[in-house]
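Posting this for the archive.
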Amino acid sequence: MGLKRYIVDKSKELNIDMIGFTDCEPLNNKKDYLIARQKKNRQTEFEERDIDKRINPRLTFPQCKTIIVIGLSYNNRLNERVDYKLKGLISKSSWGIDYHIVLKSKMEDLIKEIRKITNFTYKYFVDTGPLIDRELANKSGIGYYGKNCSIINGEYGSFIFIGYILTDLDINFIPISIDSQCGDCNICIDHCPTGALEGPFKFNPKKCISYLTQTKEKIPYELRDKMEIKIYGCDTCQLVCPKNKDVKKSNCKEFLPKVTKGYMDIEELFFISNRQFKEKYGEMAGSWRGKNILKRNGIIALGNMRDRVNIKLLESLLNDPNPVIREYAAWAILKIDLECGKEVVEERIGIERDENVRSEMKNLIKYFIHKDYQ
């Protein structure tokens, strides 16, 4: 039995949904794209800044000969209801146990199986390496690029997590790079809430709700409006995609939302301690950004609900020790009810000690008054 066949067979035994192989040649076809993206200030705070490291596997692992790419589906169904009074929506990517943990475990098991028959050196990554994992997935035959820039697999659709192992193994394989099969369909582009999909295969990450729910940068007011009640991530472009209909569902029970049921209790999120947050949500992928970022997103969700009943709850956050929380609470209060909110926020301005927060609150009042008269 050849090494490739052995690895594929073992991956099936380990319940790895998808596996592919590719070479370690630089991803030169992506260099111009990355340079243009950098010039447009579209690099996010989560990615490698050095473009050469993003495209050249040997700058990460000089001995690299073959890259093994794996994919796990997280396309789970959920019919359970939650009794939270104030619900914030969580992306499927953060429903269950952190996918970094699950994929790393799968790759470690696969590495152990390979080392039973041959000794080799390697490095492996899940979303934390410098390389463009989607490009590796495409080159390895895992799937093709959708117009939303997600990788789509013919059997499992696009709700897939990607991991890769850089190895010094000599593996015989036929290179496979699958062309897009989206045809004339533009459903994902038409449904993107913020217009982050600026055309087929043209993605502006700085406008993507998934990015907005994770960034520590100030979120533009007009984009906050589009975030609706999303606390972490966004699945819109994938949920509307026809390629995700009638596909195989995930076999990975680790990705079922046993703790969250797909939502977070916003009121609990506002007052839970850091220790309690880690105990309850520590294994969730979305917890990596910390409680305060999710708390901020919960405030945005309340603002977008526009229910006056929630103003009292938001008022209490005007005393939060975190200045960012105070600023976003003022935004939400003013959005829900400008007349009442103006009175509440002006009162807070009178006792606010942070000059930056005071300035932001004044700007918010001007912004909403101007918006109200348009």
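The first helix runs from residue 3 to 13. The mean pLDDT is 95.
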